[in-house]
Amino acid sequence: MTFAVTIHSLRGGTGKTLISINLAAFLARMGYRVVVIDMDIGAPSLQTYIRELPKKRINDFFNHQATLEEILVDASYLVGPNPKGSLLVGLANDRTNFVSKLEDIDREKALNELYKLINLVKEVLPNDPWNADFIILDTSPGFSKDSLNCVAAADHLILMLRLINADLGGTGQLLKTLHLSLKPVSSLIVNQVPQIFMDDGNDEYTRDLINKHIVEPVGSDRIQVAGFITNDEQIINSEAEFAMYFLEGEKAQRPVHAISNPNGFFAANIQSIADYVVALSKMGD
Ligand SMILES: Nc1ncnc2c1ncn2[C@@H]1O[C@H](COP(=O)(O)OP(=O)(O)OP(=O)(O)O)[C@@H](O)[C@H]1O
Ligand SMILES: [Mg+2]
After folding, report:
1. pLDDT at 94
2. Domains defined along the chain, listed by start
3. Is the pTM of this model over 0.90?
4. C-beta 260 within 6 A of ligand 1
């Protein structure tokens, strides 16, 4: 059975795309078949990790101008040599004249298209490498139509937030709103936590506070804190390095840190999130 996970957040820049691609690659390294899709149609960024960009994008699929096979690219090379699993990526069109195209489709129609996409991956294309174990949907922040559709269509919602006031308060509000109507089974990942907050049992203290002030007020037993991801200096430095390549006009793809630096804290964080997601996917078996 394919397990579809939406990675979402209220505010921008919480690490959705970073976690989507790293989690996807890590799951593929563990031996799973993973499809990750850029549903941040308005401001796509998954393409910055990919070597050969396909002509057809997810926008074309939704507009009935491409098949699933045409839009998914094999990015298993991101997983390292001889990966046990596979990684397929569906990119959104990053040229600005395409970006707003999906806004033309009404919400219900867009949701139907998304169900169609997920069902295609789940059922209609049952042969390798198509029948994925996991589909990961990387969304845009807030209450956009496409993001709400991803929340509605997936089996599980992962909400990203940072340990800053605006994210904490806002995420509580977002959860309350989602649990009034869509009631998704959800997990919270707190990202960019300073390492010092993870030492000496501080993580349990922080987890208790988040449960008390964000999870419990929503009044649903369908939400839990999945874990923490520390702020990683190597990622910050490498982002600047790759931005310099870009400014100098060189072609370079961003590294998938959990794979390129397997012994770092970040890889250990992604490992525990991957184990958590695998356990979730088996709960219904
Ligand atoms: N744990 C971390 N350590 C260091 N840098 C991080 C970490 N998490 C995210 N970042 C950095 O923060 C920036 C924003 O991350 P990312 O693009 O994944 O966020 P996003 O939620 O997808 O943003 P958007 O809402 O714009 O789509 C990136 O430069 C990313 O490398
Ligand atoms: Mg993003």
Report:
1. 84
2. 3-280 (3.40.50.300)
3. yes
4. no
